[in-house]
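Late entry, evening session. Most of the bench is empty. Finally got around to the prediction I had been postponing all week. Sequence below, unchanged from the version circulated by S.P.
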Amino acid sequence: MMLSLLKPSSGSVYMLGNKVDSGTHKLWEQVGYLEDATYYPGLTVIENLDIARRMQMISDRQSITRVIKKLGLDAHKNKKAKNLSLGNKQRLGLAKAMIHNPKILILDEPINGLDPAGVVEIRKMLMDLSKNFGVTVFISSHQLEELSKLVDRIGIIHEGRLIQEINMAHLEQSLQKHLVLDGRDKTAMEHILAEHGYMSEKSTDGLLLLEGPATESPERLAELLVRFGQPPTQLNIVTEDLEGYFLRMIQSTRRINK
């Protein structure tokens, strides 16, 4: 819908103060996008980018050199696109999206196929574009761990509906915590905890205690177990990650809709 490929069932989409529709030609001068890393397989990286330059009506040929350098494609600029690795094909797709210095970048799975070093490079580049050049970057991805390192706001979409939108700073406060305990005699530990008001359940990692007194004052719990002759061999506070939060929100939505 943001690219005017689908019409919304209701409402309208606006970007940079302009309504998004198939006739808003001027808007695309300020928007770059990557859905699939499309390219002409028989043409080189430079030739593919020259076509993108001309389609964007950019007269400055140095725009190709600049974007090649920014995306780390200099060593591959004369290779045919079909001979690039999956990661470098993705870089080429990103270069085409960025060649006209857009104010908005819309990216679908932008780090697909990249090795760990490439992922870090693209992450740093996108953060630099956002923080130092004022580019707004929209990312759609299933790689939630990587998203949590990059974005400052997330939207959770389930079955075509936006079920939550939240700032990352607020998200960190909403993540659930739990405490994991282990010891020589988990059954004895469980009885001691129950007698002193701590509710626990067995898991593959040991005893699991949900957020509350246990996570707020784990040292008291450790002292209690030591006093009764069951010192813990493991005591960890585990914070929910973005994937866990995502799944919890979806499950909550399903329960509400039943």
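Two things to note before I forget:
The longest strand covers residues 161-167.
The radius of gyration is 25 Å.
Will write this up properly tomorrow.
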